[in-house]
Design goal:
- Pfam families: DUF5753, HTH_31.
- This is Helix-turn-helix domain-containing protein.
- The chain is built from 13 helices and six strands.
- The protein is an alpha/beta fold.
- It folds into two domains: 77 residues, 434 Repressor (Amino-terminal Domain) (Orthogonal Bundle); 194 residues, Endonuclease, Chain A (2-Layer Sandwich).
- Strand 4 and strand 5 form a beta hairpin.
- The longest helix is centred in the middle third of the chain and has 19 residues.
């Protein structure tokens, strides 16, 4: 079992002042569009300092809400707005070029938007754009196996059951399953994949998804993954000492470009992204408590998975 500090990149709280590098006019290919938008927004927020949103908006002929959306990366940046903001803040030429380059990259489509635009839930787009770029990922799931470690058959059944009857076409199921598979390949197929820690509520093992063959294949995959040194899978038992009010939480940490840690909390048909230090600390503390005080050890998890596998044989 990994130490808790290594699971979370060695820290609970994000650093409040991590400098964003000045890339000049050429961004590295590793700065994907989602990351570019977040870096741009964070830099704009730092430049604004104590200046009110309304004051900045008025100076560049934009609403306060538009400036706020830019800072949160909630909408694609308008290049003219970024140019005007750079002039307003009086940034040097090199910094202005960086802001414009980030804005241009943020406007580009993510890898999944070309083929899977219609089947990627809008609230998951930021997560999908960033998960393969993180250094460490830690997830707690209460109801189903996380998408990154699902088998194709388990995914198909989950997707089938989650679609409305009129949307439940073979093509819709195929595309969504293919998207999930490509997410897995991008995450685990890198030369040095992120460290990944999955905390799974024990009820997931008994919640029937598809027939016994589907469950057997999924449990076997979990067993196989426990042998990967960069993956930790541990079961949070029903009799655990810590209970989470959140059914699905994912904590991402990054080791490049100054991107701060992020927590993704998913609901039924929406999700919240948290980057503020206080919010991140709150969720990470809960994840640490689940990991340290409730989750079974790797060895006990393997034994439980083997026992559960017999249930579906």
């Amino acid at each position: 079992m990994w130490p808790c500090s290594s699971l979370l990149g060695g820290r609970v709280s994000p650093s409040s002042k991590r400098p964003i590098p000045l890339f000049g006019g050429d961004l590295p290919a590793e700065v994907v569009p989602t990351m570019a938008g977040l870096l741009l927004g964070r830099h704009l927020r730092d430049l604004r300092g104590e200046e009110k949103l309304g004051v900045v908006g008025k100076a560049v002929n934009a609403s306060a809400s538009k400036i706020s959306r830019l800072e949160r990366a909630d909408s694609p940046p308008d290049l003219r707005d970024i140019r005007d903001l750079a002039l307003h803040f009086g940034v040097p030429d090199q910094e202005r070029l960086m802001l414009m380059a980030l804005a241009q990259r943020a406007r580009e489509p993510e890898w999944f938007e070309r083929k899977f635009s219609d089947c990627a839930m809008h609230w998951m787009r930021r997560l999908i754009g960033l998960e393969a770029e993180c250094a460490v990922l830690m997830t707690f799931e209460a109801f189903i196996v996380p998408g990154l470690i699902q088998t194709a058959e388990y995914s198909e059944q989950i997707i089938h059951d989650g679609l409305e009857e009129g949307e439940r076409t073979p093509e819709a199921i195929r595309l969504r399953t293919e998207l999930r598979k490509e997410r897995q390949e991008r995450f685990f197929g890198q030369g040095l994949p992120p460290m990944a820690n999955f905390l799974l509520d024990e009820s997931i093992l008994y919640r029937q998804v598809g027939d016994d063959a589907v469950m057997r294949g999924q449990i076997q995959k979990l067993l196989d993954l426990t042998g990967d040194p960069r993956i930790s899978i541990r079961i949070v038992p029903l009799a655990g000492k810590v209970v989470s009010n959140n059914a699905s939480m994912t904590h991402l940490t990054f080791d490049q470009f100054g991107l701060p840690p992020m927590v993704y909390v998913e609901g039924n048909d929406s999700a919240d992204y948290h980057t503020q230090v206080r919010d991140v600390e709150r969720f990470v503390t809960l994840l640490l408590r689940l990991s340290k005080n409730s989750a079974l050890s790797r060895e006990a998890t393997v034994e439980l998975l083997k026992k559960t596998l017999k249930r579906y044989s």
